[in-house]
Write a structure and sequence with these properties.
Helices cover about 50% and strands about 15% of the residues. By secondary structure, the protein is of the alpha+beta class. Among the domains are: about 70 residues, no CATH class; about 60 residues, no CATH class. The strands form two sheets. Strands 2-1-3 form a three-stranded antiparallel sheet, sandwiched between helices. The protein has a two-stranded antiparallel ribbon with strand order 4-5. Strand 1 and strand 2 form a beta hairpin. About 20% of the residues are buried. About 5% of the residues have low confidence.
Length: about 210
């Protein structure tokens, strides 16, 4: 679940960046642009993933922002769940240690995996959590590169798919060829070029 109060987004009107910042601020600016009679499409993208953010722009600015607040409240009040025999059930708080956000889901392993996990101190669940945390630490750099590539790819596919050099820019992005990437996008509209460059920056880090 995304904390909408902290979610950072960017709005484009065609190929022009019109706002960047917290979701509510970006939505307000996008609504004002739409109400001004602008005919070019306005698109809001999540800064972390470049996934489109769905917003209902009907009514006034206050109406639109109120619906965002209502959606955030519903998300915040949604009960956490744990897996039961008949599917997810509301998590109950009783005595003892809190669940700390633990969510039960099915894990399928071979018998030898379960045998090894059950022999570890703390049992299978504790061992799996430790293994995941260790993998996250060890892959932090690789994950950062992958996330940067995926976000830049989504943005360029959405906004720059018809621009000259698009396919070459994608190849350079996944080849981690910074010089070729920069050379290919340099003639793109300034806002598109700069946003693509920012999203792809981590992909070219050593």
């Amino acid at each position: 679940m995304i904390d909408q109060a902290q979610q950072r987004c960017t709005a484009f009107k065609g190929m022009e960046l019109i706002a960047s910042g917290r979701l509510s601020e970006v939505v307000r600016r996008a609504k004002e642009t739409i109400d001004s009679g602008e005919t070019e499409p306005v698109l809001i993208l999540d800064d972390a993933t470049s996934e489109p953010v769905e917003v209902d722009f009907r009514g006034s600015v206050q109406d639109v922002l109120a619906r965002l607040d209502e959606r955030a409240d519903r998300d915040a009040l949604a009960p956490s769940t744990v897996a039961g025999q008949d599917g997810p059930v509301p998590a109950r708080r009783g005595r003892g240690r809190p669940r700390l956000g633990v969510v039960g889901r099915e894990v399928t392993l071979l018998p030898r995996h379960w045998e090894w996990l059950s022999s570890q101190p703390g049992g299978a669940s504790v061992t799996l959590r430790k293994l995941v945390d260790e993998a996250r630490r060890n892959r932090r750099g690789a994950d950062r590169i992958r996330q940067s590539q995926e976000s830049a790819y989504r943005f360029m596919t959405t906004i720059a798919g018809n621009l000259p050099g698009y396919e070459e820019a994608i190849r350079a992005l996944f080849a981690r060829d910074a010089a070729r990437f920069e050379e290919t996008i340099v003639a793109w509209p300034g806002d598109v070029r700069d946003h693509a460059r920012a999203l792809a920056a981590a992909a070219f880090e050593e």
